[in-house]
Design brief:
Chain A: This is UspA domain protein. Chain A: Keywords: Plasmid. Chain A: Pfam families: Usp. The complex is a heterodimer. By secondary structure, chain A is of the alpha/beta class. Chain A folds into two domains: about 140 residues, HUPs (Rossmann fold), CATH 3.40.50; about 140 residues, HUPs (Rossmann fold), CATH 3.40.50. Helix content of chain A is about 40%, strand content about 20%. A ten-stranded mixed sheet of chain A has the order 5-2-1-6-7-12-11-8-9-10, with helices on both faces. The radius of gyration of chain A is 20 Å and the shape is globular. The N and C termini of chain A lie close together (about 10 Å). In chain A, about 45% of the residues are buried. By secondary structure, chain B is mainly α. Chain B is built from 18 helices and no strands. The N and C termini of chain B lie far apart (about 40 Å). The chains are: A alpha/beta, B mainly alpha. At the A-B interface, α8 and α9 of A face α1, α3, α10, α11 and α13 of B.
């Protein structure tokens, strides 16, 4: 069903309100572009009593009751849910989530991540990261912040798509076009070209010896970037409003600034090193720390199976 | 080029770049050469500079035309055993480079705080790791500090030379007329060549377009290439001037007073006394420290470029850092004479030059590979003669070293 890129969205919940923060966006996406949310709780063999300062779901019954309550509240918003409680046994929570995503045919995994809240917080942050590496499918991540959780679906209206000039980063486009169309969202294609001061460490070594040539090269890159983005924007489906923007400076800072005007960032990611462009670095992770909106990360290679 | 006015905007950045060419290896070879042989080896500085300008421009051109660096092209075009050999040579050269940078910084620490050299070495190790860690997270203010420290001393040498009123006729004669004065002078000349051309920088220049865009039209490629030549010529020109000034000051401080044997790095601060007086020793130690630390960081990145290119493999930066500093720590622990070790490390660099230069000539002369930026015939000819001269100098040095016969 090419019209429904996100038919099944898997949402792992640990019972905390922090984890629930992903629900409005996940619900918004599924209501516009999909069929159902799969609310998943992974039972750990020896769960801590409290998580994120809230009572933890210790038994399968408690977990089912909790997921059921969420499911009923979402149903009132015309968001349909399936619930699943799975025992982790000895497997890592992230592995279980990734495995369930495949088993349940999820098109997207949606989860909150954060680095705060003590040891469990750290672990949950790590779980999000491991899921990203293992899941081999698009993952929606949102950094938990101090905000009140509502279960009202939020439908993203403006998507930001950062590209770095590498073909790998452009793999996200067919998926993004499809997503934007079913959300009826507008799209901004963005490219950040570094200045001499903002070259990555490894790129800065030749620049030490060739400063003016490097500056000239970066200026050339900016000009090319304009042309390339226009060209890519032309591949959008007819009627989809697409704007392009090229900024110069620090990649993460500029993207974070652009992200203040949008409500979802869609970009490619990968679990391996050795790819060209800033995707190879930790731009997604660093961007996530700087913004309060969710990031939809599409692993490279995914586009063959998820798009037209 | 439309006169000086069109070049002025680039002088600032190029001056900063010139500082990157001045490392402890230059300090050692300049001071030793001046102290032992007066102005005799000035011509080597000039010749090595012209050679370096040509070689670095060729390398930069290769990067622009192909979008790949020298090491990557070698991997693509040479049989595997050759690639491995070239990689091993490049890594040895990287180690020799780092030996000099590390030793220079360690000496800087030792001279500045009157520590034993080994403590200086350990401090250098800690500092270089700290710089790597900071730079990885995008903190580059250290660079500015380091550059200005080396820059100030570089400026001091040039000013001193002018104030010193040296014998300009003798300087001009020795700058233009090649002359050796025995096996030791051949060794130092080779060292100056290695310190000036710096094989790891040849690899780095070709890596400019790495992971970034490649010019799309011949006109764009030509434009970027012109900027590269400008960068290379201005920065190397300034660096050459400073190197010559350092040699001249070493000549007047040590050689002219019959102190040829005292001309070591530890005593080199005396060359700054005429201008800086009591500040000389601190200023010299600081700049030696700064140039060692900054070049060492650049060297580590160059090592990564080379390894990635030849082997398509990377190791963590800190691991490379740890491995390449070992020879220096061993040399310090063994109590080897620092100045001598520095000079020898630069001689090793000179032996590494042909391994980068020959493939560079081969590639840049290949029209299919280079397109519009292919070498003109005279360029290839001059570069080939240069390669022969460098190989000849290296062989001659081996000959004089093992037979003990003079020049």
């Amino acid at each position: 069903m090419s019209e429904i890129p996100l038919a099944h969205i898997l949402v792992p919940l640990d019972g905390s309100s922090l984890a629930e923060q992903i629900l409005p966006v996940a619900a918004g996406l599924v209501r516009a572009c999909g069929r159902e949310l799969i609310l998943l709780h992974v039972l750990e063999p020896s769960p801590p009593e409290r998580i994120h300062g809230q009572p933890h779901l210790a038994t399968a019954e408690a977990a089912a009751r909790y997921l059921d309550r969420i499911s009923r509240e979402l149903a009132e918003q015309r968001v349909f849910c399936r619930i699943a409680v799975i025992a982790a046994d000895n497997a890592a929570v992230a592995t279980v989530i990734a495995r369930q995503a495949r088993a349940l045919g999820a098109d997207l995994i949606a989860l909150t991540t954060h680095g705060r809240g003590g040891l469990r917080g750290l672990l949950f942050g790590r779980i999000a990261q491991q899921v990203l590496q293992q899941a081999e499918r698009p993952t929606l991540v949102l950094r938990a912040t101090e905000r009140s959780v509502s279960l009202l679906p939020e439908t993203p209206q403006h998507l930001l798509i950062p590209l770095d000039g590498s073909p790998a980063s452009e793999h996200v486009l067919p998926f993004a076009w499809q997503l934007a169309r079913c959300l009826a969202a507008t799209v901004t294609l963005a490219r950040v070209v570094p200045t001499l001061e903002h070259l990555s460490f490894s790129e800065s070594a030749p620049a030490v010896f060739l400063p003016t040539a490097t500056a000239a090269l970066l200026e050339l890159e900016r000009q090319h970037a304009e042309q390339d983005l226009q060209h890519l924007a032309a591949t959008a489906p007819a009627g989809l409003p697409v704007t392009v923007v090229v900024r110069q400076g620090d990649v993460v800072a500029e993207l974070a600034a652009l992200a203040t005007d949008v409500d979802l960032v869609v970009m490619t990611t990968h679990g391996r090193a050795g790819l060209p462009g800033w995707l190879a670095g930790s731009v997604a992770a660093r961007l996530l720390e700087r913004v309060t909106i969710p990031l939809l990360l599409v692993p490279i290679g995914r586009q063959e199976t998820s798009t037209i | 080029m439309r006169g000086l006015a069109s070049v002025l905007p680039y002088l600032g950045p190029a001056f900063v770049a010139s500082v990157a060419y001045i490392d402890p290896g230059n300090y050692a070879t300049n001071i030793e050469s001046g102290a032992q042989f007066g102005y005799t080896l000035l011509w080597v500085i000039l010749a090595a500079n012209l050679a370096a300008m040509l070689i670095q421009s060729l390398s930069a051109k290769l990067g622009i035309a192909t979008g790949r660096n020298l090491a990557e092209l070698c991997r693509e075009r040479f049989p595997r055993p050759v690639v491995w050999l070239m990689w091993i040579v490049a890594e040895l050269v990287a180690m020799a480079t780092d030996l000099a940078e590390f030793l220079g910084a360690a000496l800087g620490f030792a001279l500045l705080f009157h520590f034993p050299l080994l403590i200086g070495g350990i401090l250098t190790g800690i500092t270089t790791f700290a710089i790597l860690a900071l730079e990885r997270y995008g903190h580059r203010p250290i660079e500015a500090v380091i550059t200005s420290l080396v820059g100030v001393i570089a400026g001091c040498y040039v000013v001193e030379t002018v104030l010193e009123r040296p014998d300009w006729n003798a300087i001009a004669r020795h700058a233009l007329i090649p002359e050796f004065a025995g096996p030791e002078s051949v060794l130092l000349a080779t060292g100056i060549l290695g310190a000036t051309v710096m094989p790891h920088v040849i690899y780095l220049h070709s890596a400019l377009t790495q992971h970034r865009i490649v010019p799309r039209t011949p006109a764009e490629a030509q434009r970027i290439f012109r900027f590269e030549v400008l960068d290379v010529v201005i920065a190397m020109g300034i660096a050459g001037l400073v190197n010559a000034a350092m040699l001249i000051m070493a000549a007047s401080t040590f050689h002219a007073r019959g102190l040829s044997d005292v001309g070591t790095i530890e005593e080199a601060h005396r060359t700054l006394q005429p201008l800086l007086g009591p500040l000389a020793s601190t200023a010299f130690a600081l700049s030696l420290l700064a140039s060692g630390l900054s070049s060492s960081t650049v060297g580590t990145m160059a090592g990564q470029v080379v390894m990635q290119g030849f082997l398509h493999r990377t190791i963590p930066v800190w691991l490379r850092r740890g491995i390449t500093m070992l020879p220096a720590l061993i040399a310090i622990a063994l109590g080897l004479d620092p100045t001598r070790t520095l000079v020898i490390s630069q001689v090793v660099l000179s032996f590494g030059i042909p391994f980068a230069l020959l493939p560079l000539i081969l590639f840049t002369a290949d029209r299919a590979l280079m397109g519009a930026l292919v070498n003109r015939r005279p360029t290839t000819l001059v570069a080939s003669i240069l390669a022969l001269l460098i190989i000849g100098l290296n062989l001659w040095l081996l000959w004089t070293t093992f037979t003990g016969s003079g020049a």
